[in-house]
């Protein structure tokens, strides 16, 4: 089978699988003082250091969560602690192309949320965003901004350094969803000006059900989402998922070592897109004009519905995604592509291919051959109905 859906979930790394199983078999509660508890604590702290290294911050700034959804919802809090006391945010500005776990607005009431437009390439305009934040600040509001590093559907990379530089004067806090960036581009919270960052283990070859919220400055962090226990330095109550966290840590270490070296995958992806446009000259590649992750391609051909193509590809053992995996299963237009101003009928046909480091040219060849056949058949059937 050919797996081209790495943005939905990367295959578990064999070394990680081994570690997770061995920790799971012998773990205690990381809060216990006895030997098994201390061993569990050791595993969690090793992982904390590994995840912190991936982000270039000290370990104490990493809190483990059950995934990036929880990390995003935690960060989108109207109340943050800043060491001296509390900071309150009255407004949340969220880029229009964010993942649903950010788009939903976290703990901000609906009337306090506002969407920040993206252009046709999927990019946030730093100057317009800063102008809006300045306007709100002048009116007495305090603003939390969320802009993702890399989009899960299109791979488009936001100009975070430019955005945070433009926001500097305003005192706004910036939360970054770094899920798809991890292991694919260097995470630099300082250069990005990211006050907080969400990560997910299963996108980098770790197990499902572990993630992290990382903060850039030790004292500045959101009020906990889950309360009722002192775990994670009082930032996230509940017994740590020790085995999954240990696996996340190892996956983070391995992913960090792979950040350089996506050039071959980028070349493979670019070659694939050229061939797609060769098969159908009216193919549209979403976000093609913007800086993108090396591994992601989101495209559509008029008259080819994504669901139909997806099922046909699946029957041939080729796993791809329509739009975002999180919203597939529902027939609809991806909000990300809508925000980019894509034609609705065309966007309904959006297919996302996301490559992994192990993806081979042969696999892409086989996908392209299948695509040529399947899309040809679907278009022909459509033309038959229209005639
Ligand atoms: N943000 C982005 C950009 C994602 O791609 C995902 C996973 N679909 C999430 C957040 C949510 O991560 P998790 O599955 O760990 O909750």
TrEMBL record:
InterPro entries: Aminotrans_V_dom, Cysteine_dSase, PyrdxlP-dep_Trfase, PyrdxlP-dep_Trfase_major, PyrdxlP-dep_Trfase_small
GO molecular function, one term: metal ion binding
Domain Aminotransferase class V: 2-367
Necessary cofactors: pyridoxal 5'-phosphate
Keywords noted in UniProt: Iron, Iron-sulfur, Metal-binding, Pyridoxal phosphate, Transferase
Highest rank taxon of the organism: Bacteria
Catalysed reactions, semicolon-separated: (sulfur carrier)-H + L-cysteine = (sulfur carrier)-SH + L-alanine
Gene3D superfamilies in UniProt: 1.10.260.50, Aspartate Aminotransferase, domain 1, Type I PLP-dependent aspartate aminotransferase-like (Major domain)
Role: Catalyzes the removal of elemental sulfur atoms from cysteine to produce alanine. Seems to participate in the biosynthesis of the nitrogenase metalloclusters by providing the inorganic sulfur required for the Fe-S core formation.
Family: Belongs to the class-V pyridoxal-phosphate-dependent aminotransferase family. NifS/IscS subfamily.
Protein name: Cysteine desulfurase
